[in-house]
Amino acid sequence: MAELRVTIERVAFGGEGIARTPEGVLFIPNTLPGETVRGRLVEKTASYGRAELVAVETPSPDRILPPCPLAGGTLDPTGRNLRGACPGCVYAHVRPETETALKQAQLIEMLERVGRLSDEARSRVLPPVPGVRPYRYRNKAVFHVSRSGQECRTGYYGFDNKTVLDVPDCLLTAEPLAEQWKELRSRPEWPHTLREGMTITLRWTCRDGVVWWRNRADPRQPWLSEEVAGEVLRVPADAFFQVNPWMLEPLTDVVGSLIREAGPAAVLDLYSGVGLFSLVAFRSGVRRGWGVEVESRAVEAATWNARQLGMEGFCFTASSVERALRSASARFPPETTMAIVDPPRAGLSESVRSALLRYGPRDILYISCACDTLARDLATLTAGGPYLFQRARLLDLFPRTAHFETVVWLRRKDA
């Protein structure tokens, strides 16, 4: 297809640059605002197009050379793009401070366009908290196995979400994980122990070192220990926990400050995992709480953690969030309760949003790793519901990638 020459206006959530052409909006990856680039059209719809980056004619001063050979955004001396194979680090070509600013702009745009945030409320989106480390921060990695004859590849999925890229070293993984991965791959017998479709998971904590397993973790695997603000939480090896330990303190500081400002008598910790945000609430002066989590082993760990940390007024239940919300008002009066929600990337389902609105807690603290589903849910709770936007803050827990964490506080209009 013919090449297009365009100027990038901004970068959308997900990492693609946006340009405007007579035919409509054009998305081009690995670009930056202000750059003049050439792209080759690969997709066209009635309202937008997508192009692959061919070359950057006028590079931004914020462009840097990606340190990973698999990342996109590497240019040859003539400015031509050497297309990367790995879709993970969409900002490997960007200065870290610029990456944080791009993500902040994306959050605000998403909250305004999808979440219907008012101009007045925009001033309550606080300055972002940048990542402590641009690389070597992940405490967990999951690699996939692909076999074809004698060839064996272990790594991440490529752009088609099917082809496995061989990844000798992911620069996002913490140093101990990277060292363990290198050692495993150096074993002469290693390729012969792997099967097509297998996954290999590596997990690290500073107290336990690295543990790893194929496919599923052995349930008899000893629990791991994670340090949080001077306390220790026990975590089953395969249970969810924040992947960036260097950003745990900033995250819990932001959450704790908003809980203290809201001043609830009790919290409902929905999608509670092993009880991280219940602990933050307890350390912020809340003396009653109920954690709800569907994974029974995480609930077992949360119960153990609460007992060890003296959180006598907190309990944890293995249940769906919808079911727990139906009975919450009998134990936790909504007019004095804060609901803390930390859902997976898909956000709150329609049934959970409905159940949360029926229960009607005075405050909601929404912790999200996906600002698109966050904005969708906020539109239901605020513009279309009984809540007012109070604060929001971005924390870059996932530097170099398209993702970031956002903490939002909502309060009932009649509170």
Structural class: alpha+beta
How many strands, what sense, and barrel or not for the largest sheet? 7 strands, mixed
The stretches of 5 or more residues where confidence is low (pLDDT under 50) are: none
Shape: globular
Provide the residue-averaged pLDDT: 96
From the alpha-carbon coordinates, what is the Rg to the nearest angstrom? 23 Å
N/C terminus separation:
58 Å
Report strand %: 25-35%
Strand order, main sheet: write it out. 18-17-16-19-20-22-21
> Which quaternary structure do these chains form?
single chain
| Helix fraction bin | 10-25%
Q: Count helical runs.
A: 9
Provide key terms for this protein:
alpha+beta, 6-stranded mixed beta sheet, 7-stranded mixed beta sheet, 415 residues, 9 helices
